[in-house]
Amino acid sequence: MSEVRIYKRDALDYKTSTVDGTTTQVCRAIGSPVSTTMGAGHEILETVQVPWTTLYDEVIFMTEGELHIHADGKTTTGVAGDIMWLPKGTELIYDAPVRAAYFYALYPVDWAAQNGMEEP
Length: 120
What we know:
Elements: E1 15-19, E2 22-30, E3 39-53, E4 57-71, E5 74-79, E6 83-86, E7 91-107, H1 111-114
Antiparallel strand pairs: 1-2, 2-3, 3-7, 4-5, 4-6, 4-7
C-alpha cells in the first residue's frame, strides 16, 4: 500500500548546492529513498547565473521572483505562477537577477547515478 506524505514548509531541509562556483539552496524532498521514478523539491536562487545541462526531464513551477532560462539563443522568463518545461539534454543557464524560487519535478530520480556523478 502506498503512503501519502506531506512536507511542511517550515520543516523543509535546504542544503547548499554548488555548480561552477555559484551556490543555490535546494530542498530535495522527493528522491530515491521515497520514489523509484521521479524526484521533486524546491530551490532558491539569488542573483546568480548557473550554467547546466539537464540530464533529466524537468518541470519548474515558479513560486517567487523571476527566473530567466537562456537556451538555444533564446531567453524564457518565468515569474510566480508560471510553469516551465526543460527537456532532457537542454544546455542552459539558470539566471536569477533577483531572488527566485521554484518547485521542480524531474525524471528519472537517479539521473546523477546514471551519469556517474553525485547531485551538486
